[in-house]
Input
Amino acid sequence: MKIERFTASNSCSKCGGSALMFILDCSVTRDFLVFFVANGYRELVQYTAAGILYVESDGLIVHGTFGSNKLQIKCKKPNCNDLLNDLEKLLQQTG
Output
């Protein structure tokens, strides 16, 4: 799987930080949800019911619309680059 990282300044003056996104060369499917859960992420089922992949770990929140090729990522810990590298390696295992 090919993954392109995209970082944009957050336009929300109260939020701060950056918006992080992975652009994939494939579509986000429910198989991603199964894969994330099998690898220790927690699913928020109300998002799944609405057609959105939303999973979180101790360090990251990952979400994206099923059928799109984008995953938005929010870091919950300061070692964001390490967490993003680990996430990218994990995603490489899906395809």
